[in-house]
What we know:
alpha/beta, single chain, 9 strands, four-stranded antiparallel sheet, disordered C terminus, Rossmann fold
Amino acid sequence: MTELTVSNLAARRGEDLIFSSISFALQAGEALIVTGRNGSGKSTLIRVIAGLLASETGQVTVSVDGAAIPRAAEACHYLGHRNAMKREMTVEENLVFWKRFMGDFTGGAGVEPDEAATRLGLAELLHLPFGYLSAGQQRRMAMAKLLCAWRPVWLLDEPTAAVDVQSEELFAGLMRGHLDRGGIIIAATHQELGLEGAKRLEMKGFEYHEALA
């Protein structure tokens, strides 16, 4: 059983405090959709939770079966605006790298790169250099790396940018499958992701006002 807790989180952009006093908790199988206008702090929040940016105040805790792990980021997958794949390497080489680099977190196991690509409908492209793929195909392959190594917490920043409606539906199915396995999802987005029953948090930047339902 995984639980993620964010307590009194605040972060700065340069000298300015971009948000403060953010607190919420998510249990296994729950998702949080983070919304707000551009510049309101959605991406910053995701990156702080991922351990990529330092917080001004507050803390992020991930517990497994009631025991807090030393670093919350170790339980997280982060999918940002960039796909984090080498253009010169083949798709398969990229996915193999991420599978070996990340490894599996306690309580689950990732799938092989060929299966991950198959689930995204791109198995026939494994042999191609990543840079040869279209923008939409590249995004779908970046999604595939979430499947290659098990992490209970998915942190997603505009995950369906540059993909078509069919790909959006495909990824929605993958997200629902992750939640069914006891995973947790936090997604910053301007789009509907097909996650019925997800909690919502509206970011308002310097005028942060909690809207978590």
